[in-house]
Amino acid sequence: MPLTEQELNQLQRHANQLRRDILDVTYWAGGAHVGGSLSIVEILVILYYTFMNIDPRKPEMEDRDRLVLSKGHAGAALAPLLSRRGFFDFESLKSFNKFKSAFGMHLDKHKVIGLDASTGSLGHGLPMAVGLALGARLQGKSWRTYCLLGDGECNEGTVWEAAMAAAHYKVTNLTTIIDRNKFMLDGSTEEVMALEPLADKWRAFGFLVKEVNGHSYPELYETIQAANTEKGAPVVIIAHTVKGKGVDFMENDVRWHYGGLDSDMLEKAKQKLAGEA
Amino acid sequence: MAEGLTWNVYDANTMTQADIYGDVLCMLGEKNERIVGLSADLAKSTKIGKFAQKYPDRFFNVGIAEQNLFGMAAGLALSGLVPFVSTMAVFTTMRAAEQVRTDICYQNLDVKIIATHGGISFGQAGTTHHCTEDIAIMRSLANMTVVVPADGIECANAVMSCVEHPGPVYIRIGRGFEPACYDDDQYGFTIGRSVEITPGTDITLICCGITVLQAREAAQILERNDGISVRVINMHTIKPLDTEAVLRAVNETRRIITFEDHTIYGGLGSAVAEVIAESGKACAFTRVGIPDCYSVVGYPEDLYNFYKLDADGIVEKVREVMGRDFEEAESWEDGF
Prior knowledge:
heterodimer; A: alpha/beta; Rossmann fold; two-stranded antiparallel sheet; 10 helices; globular; B: alpha/beta; seven-stranded mixed sheet; five-stranded mixed sheet; 39% helix; disordered N terminus
């Protein structure tokens, strides 16, 4: 059953809110990986509001679904999302990056309630996610593991070591999503270290590949649902996204891979969001 | 320590450290369903294959991909399992160093690492397969416990104990042809507490791994031929270090030598040196291990001899230190 109009509107509101939150966090933190945070907004929202079985009142619930944010630098997106989802007070995010804060650029699972794995070093997420999924299967648990990778991250050899293992062990209780925003710190992924043909690479490693518009809820919904019921082979969803999505002066501009906002810029950026919505 | 393990039934001289480890892990696996095993195409060499044969569903051979090996182990631990991971020390602590540090230690996960072929125990294989830096590297990781068993029996004790010891544990063993030091496992093994092998008052030899047995033999020779009373300490846990045993040695014997199959930088010798320096007490002190070089190739026995880590070398080093001009204890102003 596709998403209803009402559900779509609700998700869209969450996305708008999260984009504003990312900008606020960027402002409070004095800088954040804002481009790659804005690109994964719809992916995070649909996972945490539609697909994942979680209970903010029981963050350590054994049977909860897990997300490994392999592109750990997008903590400025995940932290406010977890907060809006009810895991902790939104005001606490004002301490982001500050002395002894629970929130730094890359999130620590011992400090951030609702976070399933500490990440930040690229290429570490998928191996952990494969381990989590195998662990669930071995213990006869039905919870699911999601892994969100950056595209630039796919330069890392460990992504492919883990991909090989996921296919070898037929890890189908894992859904892998790549934020294909086409930029990394030093420039476009194709200029720095070409990834294409990316889908063929994953196919060659034994994955079923699905490509979607990573900002389209109907497409994400249908594709993640299909991925979650696939039993033949692990699935990777290549979500085509726009780095900096929603703030026109940030979109596809590699300078906003990481950046800070003063109050004027913050307002300007928020107006762009309002204009979009 | 769990009951019911009687190592007398094994011919300890023919069972290697790794053999015994494989058996112990099988036994633990029987009692504890949360234990899983992982290796990276070294299931046979590391003997974790015994566990794999007994529990094929609970064993993952990830192929020659050590970084993924430790990343997956972290994930399995996050799911609530207790992974035992075995591959060579050199690949554990250097190829996969960041996974061990960031995925396992930073998240403080219950991953137990049994690293084989530590030091120069894989003598003929050369520097690529030697690992004389692992203790230094593992010791520097917060949350990590570092154990270097003296022989197969102690390895069994360490493996048994580490299940009850929360957080990551690094157990470093040799290739598996090391002679037995202990006759049985009932000598009071506790992680973090050293074992006095022989009492002595003139000099203390602080050892780990293969050097423990060699030091015991050296102590007998020195007692008999030179009349030197040698204390031998098996410092099987490098982190957390048994600092009290070191301080007692400083106070009571005034002379300490450390022996380890590891570079003299950052390992047991350095750990002991830190305690001595911070104590403010002077003491004749020498570290013996692999100097600042990559080891020559050869059979391990020849290498241990070359680097003064066998009984002959230890005797020589003790005579050297005993011959040093050194103040008598009575003349010390603080007079302890």
